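DATA SHEET
Item: assembly model
Revision: 1
Owner: S.N.
Input lines:
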Amino acid sequence: MATAFAPTKLTATLPLHGSQENRLLLPIRLAPHSSFLGSTRSLTAHSSRRLNHAHATRRSPPVVGVQEVVKEKKSINSLLITKEEGLVLYEDMILGRSFEDMCAQMYYRGKMFGFVHLYNGQEAVSTGFIKLLTKSDSVVSTYRDHVHALSKGVSARAVMSELFGKVTGCCRGQGGSMHMFSKEHNMLGGFAFIGEGIPVATGAAFSSKYRRDVLKQDCEDVTVAFFGDGTCNNGQFYECLNMAALWKLPIIFVVENNLWAIGMSHLRATSDPEIWKKGPAFGMPGVHVDGMDVLKVREVAKEAVTRARRGEGPTLVECETYRFRGHSLADPDELRDAAEKAKYAARDPIAALKKYLIENNLAKEAELKSIEKKIDELVEEAVEFADASPQPGRSQLLENVFADPKGFGIGPDGRYRCEDPKFTEGTAQV
Amino acid sequence: MSAILQGAGAGAAAALTPFNSIDSNKFVAPSRSSLSVRSKSYIVAGSDDGTNKSFGSSSLIARRSQPLMIPNAVTATKADTAASSTSLKSGHELLLYEALQEGLEEEMDRDPHVCVMGEDVGHYGGSYKVTKGLADKFGDLRVLDTPICENAFTGMGIGAAMTGLRPIIEGMNMGFLLLAFNQISNNCGMLHYTSGGQFTIPVVIRGPGGVGRQLGAEHSQRLESYFQSIPGIQMVACSTPYNAKGLMKAAIRSENPVILFEHVLLYNLKESIPDEEYICNLEEAEMVRPGEHITILTYSRMRYHVMQAAKTLVNKGYDPEVIDIRSLKPFDLHTIGNSVKKTHRVLIVEECMRTGGIGASLTAAINENFHDYLDAPVMCLSSQDVPTPYAGTLEEWTVVQPAQIVTAVEQLCQ
C-alpha cells in the first residue's frame, strides 16, 4: 500500500522506484553532531534493531532517516538549491523571525493581547514545506500559526493587523493570534485547541480527492497539516492518520516536535517518543528529519508532496525542532534546561542556511543583509499599517455569525431579525 | 366549534392504538379529526398550516392547500376547510425515513458537491435506512462509510465544507455526536466567525435521537439541549414525512451549518407528500392545529403525544392550538408570539430534560418577549432529569405522556 520512501530517489542516477528493498535496511541514525535530546542513543539503536526485524517480516513500510541521504548528496557536489531558491528560502525565514520578534515587542507594549505563541527557531519547517506548495494547496496549523500564514503568502500587514485586532486583519480582527485564516491563500487556520485542525486538514484533502475522483476535475491540491508533539498523544491525530491512509488522501502530516508542550516534556508524556514510527502503524511512511535544517526539510517535503500529488497517499513527517522562546508570551519558560536551549540555539536554522549560501557561493553577505533590511522595513510598515487601521465598529459584531443571516430567525414582528435596521448596528436583540 | 366536536367524535371512535401498545416498527401517528379553520385576524408566518387529516386508515393523509413553501417570513395563508378534502393533490405515500431519503437523493442529484459521510451510511444503507441505495447510485466516495471516529469525521466534513463540498454528516445516533462536540462547537459553529466570514461551513449534521423503546440511557439522549448554545448553528427537528423531506432539502441548501434532529420512533410514519418539489423554511414553526384556548408548543415525537392529548381535550371542550416549533434554534417568535397573543396561555411539551432543555430556553424567550400577553405562567412539561432507564415502565415515566398534557391544560385553563 505505502510505497517505498526510497532514499536513492534523491540522487539523480538511480531509479525513482523499484525494488529498493535492500536500501530499506538503512537504520535511523542521527548524525553525530545532532544530539536530539528527545531520543537517546539507546533509543536509536533500539529502533534500528527493530527496523531490521520489522523488515525481515516485511510488514511495515520502509522508513528512512534523511540526514544520511542528504549528506550523501551534498558530498557528490550537487547543490540542493539554486541561488533563487536559496534567497526565497532565506527571505521567508527572516520574515518569520523578524515578524515574531516584532510580535514580542508589540505584546509587551500592549498592542496585542491574549495568548500569543511565537515560532522562533522553527522557521525551517514552515519554510521548508510551504515554499514548495502552490497557492491552491492548503495549510492547516495550530495556535502557533503566524509564520505558517506568512509563508503561505498572507501579507505581514494582514497578520499584524489581525494581531492588533483591527478590521484590516485577515479575519477582520475576529480571530486573533490563534486563528489565522485566508481563503485567498488557502490558509485554513489557526486553531486554538490542539488536534482540532487535523480533521479539518483531512477534510480539505478529502475535498481534493473528491474533486478528482467524483467531480472529475484536474485537482492535484495537497494539504499540509502542522501540529506539535503534544498533539501526537491526542485521539484526533490517530483517527485522522487512519482515515488518510485508508482513503489515500493527499495530505502530509507534519509534526513539529519541539520536545515541549508548554511545560510537559515530550518524554514525560509519550510512551514511545519516536513519533515517525506511528506512521507505518497506519500504513503510511513515517519520516524523521532534522527540522533545524531547511534544506533537509525541503527534500523530505518534496518527496512527501509528490507522493500526495500522485495519489499515493499521506506521509507522516516528524521534524525535530525547537522553539527558542517560551510556549507563549505569557510563559516564563523556567522548566527548560539552559544547556538544551544553548544546543539548539547553536543550530539556528537561519544561521545554518546563511552559512550554506555563503559557503557554496550562492549568495554574498551583502545580498543577505539587504534581504534582512528589506524584511525589517516590511515588518515595520506592517506595524504602522496595523496601528493606523481602525478597530472594528459595533456593526461588525453580528455580521459573520451566520453565512446566511436568516439563521438569526424570525422576530416577534414577523420579519427576519437580520432585516431589522438595528441589526447592522449590532444593537439588535438576538 | 360543533364541527370540531363532531369530527372529534368520529375520531374517538376510530381505532386509535393506545400508547402502550405502540410498537416502534408499526408506529402510526394518531390521526386527527377534521377541523374547520377559523379565519384569522392575524398573519401567519409560514404556510404549511391547517393540514387536514382524516380518519380511517392507518396512514396519515395530509392535504396541502398550497404546493410550495414560500420562504418569506410573513405570508397570509389560510387553509381550506374540511369540506374540500376531496381535492387531494397528487402525491405519493411514503414513510418518514423514505421522505428523508428522497430529499437527500434529490439534493444529491441536483448538486454534485453534496455528499454523505457517516458510519454505515454506504453499503449498509444507514442504520435507519435513510441512505439506503444511495451508495449504489452515487458511489463509495459520495456516500462515505467512515470508521468509528465521530470527532475526526465530523471535523473532516467541516474541512470538506470549508473547501467547497456540502457534506451531510450522519451520527448513527445523535448521542454519538457527543464525541464530536469539539468539532461541532469550535469549528462548525464558530469558524465562519473567527475566519472573518471567509469560510462557510454548509454542513448538515443529522441523525436519530430522542427516547426510543427501551434503548437504554446512552441511546436515548436529547442532544438539542446540549447544542443550543453553540453560536453559528441552526437546529431543526422534523416530525412528519412532509417536513422531514422539506427540512432536509432546506438544510442542505442552506449556507449555514444545520443540525437536523430526527427521532428514532418516527421513522415509520406514513404520509402522502406532494410529487412536486418543495422545501420547508428552516426558521419557521408549523401550525398543527389552530385553536383558541391555549397554545401548546412542541416538537418531534412529543407532537404526537400532544395531538393525542388534544383529542381528549377537545372531547372535554377545550380548543388547544398546537404548534410544532420545528426550528429549535432560532425560535420562530412570530408564529409563537401570535399564538400567545391570541390564547394567553402557553404549555410547552418537550422530550428534553427539565434542566437546560429547549423548553427552558423557550420559556425564557416567551416570558421575555410576550410577558404582557400571558394570563398564566408558562408551563413546561419535560422529561425527568433522569438517565433514561431500560425498564419499560420506568422509561414511560421519564417522558411526558398524553395524560399529563391533559392535566396540565386543565390546570392552565382554570
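QC remark: The longest helix of chain B spans residues 96-110.
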